[in-house]
Amino acid sequence: MAISKMITSLIVAIAQNNVIGKDNDLIWRLPNDMKFFKETTLNHHIVTGRKNYISIPKKFRPLPNRINIVLTRQTSFNEEGCVVLHSLEAAIEHAKNNNETELFIIGGGQIYKEALEKDLIDKMYITQVHQEFEGDTFFPKIDNTVWKKVSETNNPVDEKHQFPYSFVVYEKLS
C-alpha cells in the first residue's frame, strides 16, 4: 500500500519581536486568529507538546474534530482522547500511517524549534501580530533563504482586534 505524500506544517502567532507566549499562555486576544487556527487545523492531526497542551483550557481539550497528538518525555502521561507519543518523528509517522494529508504542529516553542532544526516542516501558517510584547517563549527567526512567502492577508485594528495582524503562509524553497 503506497502512502501518499503528507505535508508537515506548523501554525503559530508571532509578535514583531518573535514572542509567542508568556507564562505558558497566549499574550493577545485575536478572535480572527482563533477562527483561522480552527478552520486551518480542523479534521487534521495536530501535534503539541505536553505543557502547551495543558495550557489549553480544560473545557477545550482535546481540541475537537482533530486527532490530538501530545508529545512528552513523561512515560506515565496519559490523556483521554489523545495519542501520546515521545518524539516528533513518531508523531509524523503516526499521522502518515493514518492517511493524513497535512499534519499541523501547534507548539509550544520547544517543539517549533526542534521541528525547524530537524528540517521537518514543509509549510508555515503564521499570524504576524504587528506589535512587540514581553514574553518568555520565542519563535525562531524566519530564514528567507529557506522560506518563501506565498500569501499574505493584512488585517487592521477593529473593535474586536486591538492590534493589526497578518495571516502569512510560507513554503519551503526546494
Number of domains: 1
Distance between the termini: 27 Å
Name the CATH class. Alpha Beta
Mean pLDDT: 95
Strand elements, count: 10
How much of the sequence is in beta strands?
25-35%
Radius of gyration: 16 Å
| Helix fraction by DSSP (H/I, runs of at least 4) | 10-25%
As residue ranges, the low-confidence spans are: none
Overall 3D geometry? globular
Q: Provide the structure class.
A: alpha/beta
Q: Helical region count?
A: 4
The major sheet is characterized as: 8 strands, mixed
Spatial strand sequence of the major β-sheet: 5-4-3-6-1-7-10-9
Q: What's the helix-strand series? A: EEHEHEEHEHEEEE
- Using the 3D structure, state the CATH architecture: 3-Layer(aba) Sandwich
Written account of the structure:
The protein has 174 residues and is of the alpha/beta class. It has a single domain (24-172), classed as Dihydrofolate Reductase, subunit A (3-Layer(aba) Sandwich). 21% of the residues lie in helices and 33% in strands. The chain has helices spanning 31-41, 50-55, 88-97, 109-117, and strands at residues 7-15, 19-21, 45-49, 67-71, 82-85, 102-107, 123-129, 137-138, 147-155, 165-172. The strands form two sheets. Strands 5-4-3-6-1-7-10-9 form an eight-stranded mixed sheet, with helices on both faces. Strands 2-8 form a two-stranded antiparallel ribbon. It starts with 6 loop residues before the first strand and ends with a strand.
